[in-house]
Specification:
The chain has 145 residues and is of the alpha+beta class. The protein has helices spanning 6-14, 19-31, 33-52, 78-99, and strands spanning 110-115, 130-135, 141-144. α2 crosses α3.
Length: 145
């Protein structure tokens, strides 16, 4: 059998092992004197330590229950309520006047240009023959060049 590690020995002394681990430890210390001596030495050391710090293994510590203090509801003053209402109205008005686009009385215009007879790469752009069309929202041609 493999010897017991120190962590498992301490859990065994403190009574924190499962039934299966306790059976394993008890069967192991019947055959291994080294582990039995380690357990007894650790048990003696823990007893001395508890005696020096004034804590016995039988003593039960009573921890008081945590009591939450009562919660006070905050009352909002009338001035604060009116301020909140005014800020809300201001945000809604800003939405309507600044964010939502206004309808314009001007017509939507489109500019279309194309090169008559194709684009001649041997001429500069200023010497190319260009046709410009300005088209309004009713698809009527306003100006030609």
């Amino acid at each position: 059998m493999k010897c017991i590690d120190n962590e498992l020995i301490q859990k065994y002394i403190d009574g924190e092992v499962s039934c299966r681990e306790a059976e394993y430890i008890q069967s192991h210390i019947k055959t291994c004197n080294k582990c039995a001596c380690r357990i007894e030495a650790q048990r003696a050391f823990a007893g001395e330590l508890k005696k020096h710090i004034g804590f016995s293994a039988v003593q039960v510590v009573d921890i008081p229950e945590f009591v939450r203090p009562p919660v006070r509801k905050r009352r909002i003053s009338v001035k604060m309520k009116y301020s909140i209402y005014a800020a809300s109205v201001a945000c809604i008005l800003a939405l309507f006047f600044f964010i939502i686009p206004k309808k314009s009385n001007e017509e939507d215009l489109r500019l279309i240009y194309f090169f008559e007879g194709g684009f001649d790469a041997n001429k500069p752009v200023s010497q190319q023959e260009v046709m410009l069309l300005i088209i309004d929202s009713g698809d009527r041609i306003i100006e030609c060049n």
